[in-house]
Amino acid sequence: MALVAVLSATPGFAQTSSKDEAGRVLGLETAWNHAIEGKDVKALDMILASTFIGVEADGSIYNKPDFLASIKAPEYQPSQAVNEQIAIQMYDGAAVVTGIFRVKGMEKGKPYVHRERFTDTWIKIKDTWQCVSSHVTAIPANAK
């Protein structure tokens, strides 16, 4: 599984370049999307820090157990989850990823497509990158 390879990758040298670390974080963003598509809560559990907090487009707040439960819900059936216009800023032991997240699928028997601008904050914890926070803002269907 690609996620395990990304999560377990450790630098072979004393110092790893910021570009290498950015690549790892961006790989985890992609792995997150694949985990959503596959409803893989085990992979998501590894990606998200135990202290993870998310803010939804409606202003509601959720924690890691809430998020994992929402992915496991039988009525949630995503078919595609992708990022667009993604950018990353690296800091010492932290990364901030911004972009557009698009997901489509079926929920409660109805098809949906959601587009959201997101900001994810990643922290390197014991040589492993984990997402500690995610914030989304809905993009209306008629917006560009």
Describe what is shown at a glance.
The chain has 144 residues and is an alpha+beta fold.
Q: What is the strand and helix layout of this fold?
A:
Layout (H helix, E strand, L loop, with lengths): L1 H7 L9 H20 L3 H7 E8 L5 E3 H9 L3 E16 L2 E14 L2 E16 L2 E11 L6
Parallel strand pairs: 1-6
Antiparallel strand pairs: 1-2, 3-4, 4-5, 5-6
Structural commentary:
The chain has 144 residues and is α+β, with helices and mostly antiparallel strands. The chain contains 4 helices and 6 strands, in the order αααββαββββ. It has helices spanning 2-8, 18-37, 41-47, 64-72, and strands at residues 48-55, 61-63, 76-91, 94-107, 110-125, 128-138. It has a 6-stranded mixed β-sheet with strand order 2-1-6-5-4-3. Helix 1 (2-8) runs antiparallel to helix 2 (18-37) and helix 2 packs antiparallel against helix 3 (41-47).
Number of helices: 4
**Secondary-structure element pattern, one letter each:** HHHEEHEEEE
The Cα radius of gyration reads 15 Å
Number of strands: 6
The share of residues in extended strands comes to over 45%
**Helix/strand class:** alpha+beta
Spatial sequence of strands, sheet with the most strands: 2-1-6-5-4-3
List the uncertain runs.
1-14
The separation of the N and C termini measures 35 Å
Major sheet: size, sense and barrel closure? 6 strands, mixed
Mean pLDDT: 89
Question: Roughly what percent helix?
Answer: 25-40%
Features:
single chain, 144 residues, alpha+beta, six-stranded mixed beta sheet, 4 helices, 30% helix, 47% strand, disordered N terminus
